[in-house]
Amino acid sequence: MSDVLTPGQGHLGPEVDRFDERVDDLLELLRGHPAADRLFLAASHLGDFSLIWHLIGITRGVIKRRPDQVVVLAASLGLESLVVNQGVKRLFRRERPTTTGDGHLVVRKPRTSSFPSGHASSAAFAATVLTGWDGKRWGALWFTIAAIVGTSRAYVRIHHASDVVAGAMCGALLGVAARRVLRRYDLH
């Protein structure tokens, strides 16, 4: 039995299916290239449990002498993950394009449904919060990392491209809300 799902499982409509197919066709042009495979596989692994964002948070906290921001980022990433993975994903229960990812790009088998991408959501969330603290100059770096992490999930075939887009939108909205709360309690 193949781990590739048949069309229509987790169906969000024909337009979304066509979008997902087009993006997958574009990513297929890169798959198999050693540099692209290494980049996106590493990004996918570093996105597990928001590891990359915790590492960035700790590094920033040490350099800027802001341990409070390390704790705030870690706690807010935990809340964001809870909202997305235990809340939003349960509303959709979309099946993944594969259950184990691309055959030659081994990734951890997720326990949650596909829509929206938790990796993309946490990446957009963290980039939004960090940009609030660091300004636009650093924001370009944070959002570039977020885009690579999000894209990696479609690249390794563990998410549909539309899952990634929806995850990024969800994370950005939650990040904007978090920035308002942090400003209110003078934690910015």
Write a structural description:
69% of the residues lie in helices and 0% in strands. By secondary structure, it is mainly alpha-helical. The radius of gyration is 17 Å and the shape is globular. The chain has one domain: Up-down Bundle (Vanadium-containing Chloroperoxidase, domain 1), CATH 1.20.144.
Summary of the model, kept short:
Residues 1-9 have low confidence and may be disordered. By secondary structure, the protein is mostly helical.
* CATH class bucket: Mainly Alpha
How many whole angstroms does the radius of gyration measure? Answer: 17 Å
| Quaternary state of the chains | single chain
In CATH, the homologous superfamily goes by the name Phosphatidic acid phosphatase type 2/haloperoxidase
Structural class from helices and strands?
mainly alpha
What's the pLDDT, averaged over the residues? 90
Low-confidence blocks of residues: 1-9
Can you write the helix and strand succession as a string? HHHHHHH
CATH architecture: Up-down Bundle
Strand content: under 5%
Report the end-to-end length measured between terminal Cα atoms.
51 Å
Q: What is the overall shape?
A: globular
How many structurally independent domains?
1
Helix content: 55-70%
Q: How many strands appear in the DSSP assignment?
A: 0
